[in-house]
Every structure is written in C-alpha cells, then in structure tokens.
Amino acid sequence: MEIIDFRSDTVTTPTPEMREAMYYSKVGDDVYEEDPTVTELEQLGATLLGKEAGLFLPSGTMGNQVAVMSWTKRGNEVILEAESHMYYFEVGGLAVLSGVQVRTVKGERGVMNPEEVERAIRPSNIHFPETALICLENTHNRGGGKVVPLDNMRAIYEVAKKYNLPVHLDGARIFNASIYLGLEASELAKYTDSVMFCLSKGLSAPIGSLLVGSSPFIKIARKYRKMLGGGMRQVGVIASAGVVALKTMINRLKEDHDNAKLLAEGLQEIPYLKVDPSEVETNMVILKVVGSNISANALEQTLNQEGIFCNATSSSTIRLVTHKDINRQQILRSIDIFKGLKF
Ligand code: TLP
Hints:
The protein is built from 14 helices and 13 strands. By secondary structure, the chain is an alpha/beta fold.
C-alpha cells in the first residue's frame, strides 16, 4: 500500500543533490571552528536573514533553548504566545535549562496583540520577576501554519525596544512565511534580535537548524550549545545538505502551499469534517472533526489503515502537513480516500 505521510514536513528525505554534497563535503573539527562547510552554512544562513553571525545546531528545539539561555538569567520572565512551540512542545526546557518563568499571551491563531504584549511586561517592583525576552513564532505551528503579518512583528518589536528587551523568533518555518508574504526572510528578521530556523522541515535537509543574530550573541550561544552537548565534530557531512537546502529548496515551498490549499478545498465538502480553505496560508491544513460518531484519534487510526498518516492535534482536530515528498496526484488520491470513509 502506498503511504502518504502528512504527519509533518520533518519526514522529508534529502534530495539526490544533498546526498552528493554530503558525500563530497569538506570537513574539519567544528568545535575548533575548523569545518569549512559548517562555516559556509552559518554565513549563508546569517546573510539570508540579514544578521551578522550564525550557529549550526542539531535541532530547532536546541536552537530555541540555546537562544533563551543566551538572552536570560535564572528567575527572569519570558513572554510567549500561549500555543507557541517553545511553550507547548519543548518538554518544559525553558524552566529546566534557563530557569525562567513563562508568561503567556493568547494570540489569534498565534498572532499576539502588541498592546497585550506590552501589558505583560513587568514594571519595576521588588516582588516581580524581570521580563527579559519576548518570543514570536512565524509561521505559527499550532495556529495551523498561520503567517504572522509583518506589521504585527514590527509593532511587537517596537514595544520590545521601548522597554529595551530583545525579541527572539522561532522561525522554524520562516521561509514558508516569506514565500507567502512575497518578502525576503531578512525583511521579517529586521524585527527580531535572534532567529532560529530549521533546515530539516520543508527545506528537506536530513538534520539541523540555524540560530542567527549579532556576533556577540552567537559567541554566547556557541558556549551554551557546547554545554548542552551540541558541539559537533566533522559535521560538514550534514551541514552540506543544509547548504543545498538554502540554495535550492526555498522557492519550492510554494508548491507545498498550493497543495495544502488544494487539499483543503477538496476536503471542505466532506460532511464529517469542517475545514476552511481561506485559513490555509502555508503548508498546514487543520481539520475539525465534526462527525458525531468519530473522534480525531479514531479518524487518525482509520486513515492510517488506508495509508494516510496524520496527527491528531486535539480530541477534535487533525493536522495535515504538505511537503516535498507529497505531490499533487497524492493530494487528489488522499481527497478520494477521505471521501470514501463514511461516519
Ligand atoms: N515541530 C514539529 C513537532 O515538534 C511538533 C512538527 O512536526 O511540527 N519550532 C517550531 C515552530 C516547530 O514546529 C518545531 C518542530 C520546532 C521548533 C522544533 O524543531 P525540531 O523538531 O528540529 O527540534
């Protein structure tokens, strides 16, 4: 049976060009900063985002956590969106690794109101923790791949600067946002002090993320990466795939967005589901399961048996993510499979 895997864009496999680059990559010991391919990738990533320096990390989670460790000290407070990946999906790392307290602001599909962000900043008071950092996420994962508009990022950045606070962006899928907006990623990154973005999602590299920011910030982050055991050796072997990802895979993301839209349009007529194609901005489709005799978990299992892999994201919602390894024909086939199920 053919498997169509909508669980995440993390399931993408490397392209032949990536495998070839990996095979021939020039390497050195990156803890000594002697791996030329890692240096190339870090510089390329920093330049694309309009920042001074970059740091290659094994995962997006480590990139976000290292950023918070670098910006904060124990007992500080960090402002985050209530459904953000850093708060929701990073195993409580902010509390354990940085020793910070989290203050969440509920957004509209992940988009926070700048005035509410401003109200969440602590005034000076002997009883209060000190606010040390504001975090954004673009595109927003639990917001269903929602793009945070540029104006919103700018407004929050202006609030942050009024209080002399840094802004970190979880830009795991920042290129999906930039493609949707028709803007360079550096335009979005202007309203941030550090950005983490992933090479191993829609860009299809097998491993890796980059953290970018000012040179002094990256110097601190490099040390925390080492502390977490993320100092790697001849890692040009995988950084080379990241270089190919950044050079060849960004514009292709538009296909994933078109496929997600096609999927949502095809699924909107199905009686046991509710889906709004106008909400699909990038590569995610969120289905609300409305059939009275089926839960999201049960539907996930049923689809699994039909060769469609997906993730239930709550008791009534399912997330489908489009990516390089799902083509238009497979989208159409998936719609037929959904239509064939009766509840
Ligand atoms: N997201 C994964 C899961 O962790 C949920 C997915 O399948 O979407 N920031 C954002 C916005 C993310 O979506 C993810 C991964 C990360 C950070 C973490 O990246 P990794 O998986 O490389 O640690």
